[in-house]
Amino acid sequence: MKKNVTVIGAGSWGTALASVLADNGHHVTIWVRDPKLADQINTKHVNEKYLPDVELSTHIVASTDLESAVTGKPIVLLAVPSHAMRQICRQLVPFLDPEVLLIHATKGFELESLKRMSEVIMEEVPVAISSRLAVLSGPSHAEEVVLRQPTTVVIASESGESMLRSQDLLMNANFRVYTNPDLVGAEIAGALKNIIALGAGMSDGLGYGDNAKAALLTRGLAEISRLGMKLGAMPPTFAGLAGVGDLIATCTSKHSRNWRAGYLLGQGKELDDVLEHMGMVVEGVRTTNAAFALARREGVDMPITTVLYGILFEGKDPRQGVEELMRRGKTFEMSYLDPNGA
Ligand SMILES: NC(=O)c1ccc[n+]([C@@H]2O[C@H](COP(=O)([O-])OP(=O)(O)OC[C@H]3O[C@@H](n4cnc5c(N)ncnc54)[C@H](O)[C@@H]3O)[C@@H](O)[C@H]2O)c1
Ligand SMILES: O=P(O)(O)OC[C@H](O)CO
């Protein structure tokens, strides 16, 4: 059945998800902050800043008016950067339908509170209840999704009904949606993989080879899983699309903003210059900060995250960081099963 759906956020990901929804025949409104961009989407059917060269469906209607975009809509999909989630939720509250199904597709933590995005949504939106809240995660570069290239994602929710509704809404022949009951794990895996993608880009930027990158992905997955388990995630989620799947996509793709930022850092560029050059959200930088604090709070060893924190925020030389990782004390490969192991 065709639905009225509003997507909040017209960056790469919001635009790509609006395209999937339009392909599925839904009536799609996309809320856009910038009036010029709204006009461009409505008249030229293109989002030049975030996804140039791609013709968007004429069935996607852009609006800058949050009230009319959201009022009476049964489904709202949030695709904003993590730093904007709380503020956007506050703006949405007066207009949301009491029975609305909320799906978020954001990969990050709130830095100040170290909360997951669903925790932020539940705090701010009185009509948000866990039985009508889902997260979309998994290996999915917007640039490939808009070209209708085969993509698989995960919808996670504590509610079976919300998972199935979200799966029905989004799934098509190019966009395969799996369900997973582990909302906590899907959010944590999706957020933390960006740290490792920064590291993988840095390794490439430094000129290291495939062995180093394989090590980063594998041991990165170990430390992500360790923190995730401590925070209540289910271990199999990290072996799935939101975990290893998204690690592979993000750590090996030139589409990845996190990989690209890491690459430039590895080549010796300054963090501020890199972020300015990217012009798009690089969630891994804030997430490294958040994960470093979470790991300390929870007493979980995260050596790669700790070294990246030093490089990003304390001026550590990347090569010295690699040396520190390589010269760490001896350890046992399966220590990731122990939350306090290394
Ligand atoms: N791009 C992808 O391929 C992709 C895939 C999966 C998940 N994600 C996740 O989706 C989220 C959004 O990423 P994106 O790629 O669309 O980012 P983007 O940089 O392409 O666009 C960000 C969008 O958010 C808007 N924005 C920024 N600050 C805002 C604020 N304070 N209030 C309202 N809107 C604000 C910008 O105007 C822009 O439209 C991130 O958490 C990202 O990790 C992205
Ligand atoms: O471009 P990135 O690095 O923000 O990654 C985008 C998606 O999360 C990939 O699944």
Q: Which radius of gyration do the C-alpha atoms yield?
A: 20 Å
Major beta sheet summary:
8 strands, mixed
Question: Which ligands appear in the coordinates?
Answer: nicotinamide-adenine-dinucleotide, SN-glycerol-3-phosphate
Largest beta sheet: what is the strand line-up?
3-2-1-4-5-8-9-10
The averaged pLDDT comes out at 96
How many separate domains make up the residues?
2
The assembly state of the depicted protein chains is: single chain
CATH topology of the largest domain: Rossmann fold
Query: Distance between the terminal alpha carbons, to the nearest Å?
Result: 49 Å
| Total helical elements | 15
In terms of DSSP E residues, the strand content is 5-15%
Provide the succession of SSEs: EHEHEHEHEEEHEHEHEHHHHHHHH
The assigned CATH architecture of the largest domain is 3-Layer(aba) Sandwich
State the helical fraction: 40-55%
Uncertain regions: pLDDT < 50 for 5+ in a row? none
CATH superfamily of the largest domain: NAD(P)-binding Rossmann-like Domain
Structural class: alpha/beta
Shape: globular
Please tally the β strands and state the result.
10
Domain Glycerol-3-phosphate dehydrogenase NAD-dependent C-terminal: 182-322
Enzyme class: oxidoreductase
InterPro entries: 6-PGluconate_DH-like_C_sf, 6PGD_dom2, G3P_DH_NAD-dep, G3P_DH_NAD-dep_C, G3P_DH_NAD-dep_N, NAD(P)-bd_dom_sf
Binding site for sn-glycerol 3-phosphate: 107, 138, 140, 193, 246, 256-258
Task: Summarize the topology.
Elements lengths: L3 E5 L3 H12 L3 E5 L3 H9 L16 E4 L2 H5 L4 E4 L6 H8 L8 E4 L4 E2 L4 E2 H8 L8 E5 L4 H4 L5 E6 L3 H11 L4 E6 L2 H23 L4 H21 L10 H12 L4 H10 L4 H8 L4 H16 L4 H11 L4 H9 L16
Parallel strand pairs: 1-2, 1-4, 2-3, 4-5, 5-8, 9-10
Antiparallel strand pairs: 6-7, 8-9
Bound molecules: nicotinamide-adenine-dinucleotide and SN-glycerol-3-phosphate.
The site of nicotinamide-adenine-dinucleotide (NAD) has 25 residues, from helix 1 and helix 4.
